[in-house]
DNA sequence: TTCAATTAAATTGCGTACAATCTAATTGAA
DNA sequence: TTCAATTAGATTGTACGCAATTTAATTGAA
């Protein structure tokens, strides 16, 4: 019995979590390069494609990112011409993010990305579903409560 | 039928992967602060606690990190007095990393970390095992071949 | 009404990640 | 043997990611 057993990399659940997250993002980067996007910019646009005109706070809640990450990222997306930012009228503390025409048009090119990522995922449909729900359960435990 | 269905955040496996990896590392940071370590430094020491005197290349292979990440990280661990680095004799291109007494001693304080992380993981033993093996399968698909 | 507490973003500082490039050591086929 | 190709690590530049702090707007209890 090794008193340090729990400190072995192979016995840790967290390391494959960390590594898988990292490798997935890396896979995306090669594909997203063609669109001039980083992974974080891409998921930010995904939220906007679903719901345009979201506040920075709501974006952060959806993506689990804070303003320290989002503010420079949104400025970068703005400089590329994909979004605009506007202070709220009712509450001037808030900043809302809107897609430009170019940002909206990018969606048609982005639809090609998910299937190409799917090719790299060597899991059955069933395994992917299991993984998906376990991850979401884990995330709710880590963030909520 | 929405032609953009695949671009919804909730339909993507990769987002929870990215988010879970991020949140896990964040959980660690609070605990590791007490040891004066970051998460990446911690997993680097985990490898060394198992096998002292590893080359930078082998460390990278184990942790899926390249020299661009490891070199400054190892210099930082060296400055804190936890490791030393030495060029190989047989092959001077290689650099080997060794634990100092302090670095080895840190292991006794680090054993307290895994159980405290486990408290935050709201999965059954069975679920954790399933998640672990699915993640490793996914990683091998993303990295290998 | 008022002002202390709260809230939303922005800013600052540090530590990853990684692609791309560079340098020096080693290898191996002609 | 030799030198082109490979290899290991270091360096450079860009983009997160987040804790901590700051600024400005809003809220709410006395």
- State the CATH topology of the domain at 17-113 in chain A: Arc Repressor Mutant, subunit A
Low-confidence stretches of chain A: none
Sketch the topology of chain A as an H/E string, one letter per element.
HHEHHEEHHH
Main beta-sheet strand count, sense and barrel state of chain A = 3 strands, antiparallel
Shape estimate of chain A: globular
Distance from N terminus to C terminus of chain A (CA atoms, Å) equals: 35 Å
Work out the helicity level of chain A. 55-70%
Please tell me the overall pLDDT of chain A: 94
Subunit organisation of the chains: homodimer
CATH C-level label of the domain at 17-113 in chain A: Mainly Alpha
Output the structural class of chain A: mainly alpha
Name of the CATH homologous superfamily of the domain at 17-113 in chain A: Winged helix-like DNA-binding domain superfamily/Winged helix DNA-binding domain
| Strand line-up of the largest beta sheet of chain A | 1-3-2
Radius of gyration of chain A: 18 Å
- Percent of sequence in beta strands of chain A: 5-15%
